[in-house]
């Protein structure tokens, strides 16, 4: 039996540590995913939204510590009970997402590895199976080291999680797996290769033919000809989503000039100030934005602001802080993906991201 639990012990412990670390690297991103689950049309737990970041930090730290403890064989029974509770909870969430198509990415491995809802569910089923094997054979999970050493390793792991989490919250994720990482070109990320698979749709046309409804199924959006038939309705369903570029929701909109994305991405020296939502911004960062952007303008950079907030509110902020640049409108979700700082800054050269910084690190961008 001890050999039967050896592999599941490594698999469960290792996967929990890996999954937890990936999310701890970007707890803000994981909190966005929890917010999606808390939404009214999903779990209807909107009262938890203000606490999403705290809950995210607790969950990912718990994942890592439980993974460490099961590998150490430290307090095996209570650890297995908590592991079972977590995996049952995650299995419920992924099944709910898959069955009702409410949240299309569970965020199990952050932006490192995207899984479809059903892939996430079956991953959790496998993890649940291995966890149950561990529970059945818990007597054959010996401690890896003496009790004091196991305690010391657990405490060191906990302190490391706290320090690492504090670091990424006050700066940016150490590892950036998003399409807006440094050295990525935004316009290239938005492009679709000529030979890329195209979306495939199925259309169901309903016609009234001699008083009876007749259904015609096509993969062509063109209006079908039905002799003696009167059109009633049409519905469409996507059979294959085809190729979706890494960046598909980014644009820069001007109230006066419309879409100016290509024009801005052609700039050789561009600074983008991201304030995805004024109501949720850290006000201490605005004075730093003022100091940094004034220096950037003096250094010959074009500076623009990107936000999803009300234009009048943005103008009021600019007047208050005496900003010497204009704000443009961009989708909030895209801005939250671009940088995990509100406000934050990106430095670009013809659409290529040269550098990006949390408002605590503007001084690290060389102009």
Automatic annotation (TrEMBL):
It comes from the Bacteria. It holds the Pfam family MauE. The chain crosses the membrane at residues 7-24, 48-72, 79-100, 120-138, 150-169. InterPro entries: Methylamine_util_MauE (IPR009908). Keywords: Membrane, Transmembrane, Transmembrane helix. It is found in: Membrane. GO terms for cellular component: membrane. The keyword Lyase does not apply. The keyword Transmembrane applies. One of its GO terms (biological process) is methylamine metabolic process. It is a multi-pass membrane protein. Residues 1-136 form the Methylamine utilisation protein MauE domain. Its main location: membrane. This is Methylamine utilisation protein MauE domain-containing protein.
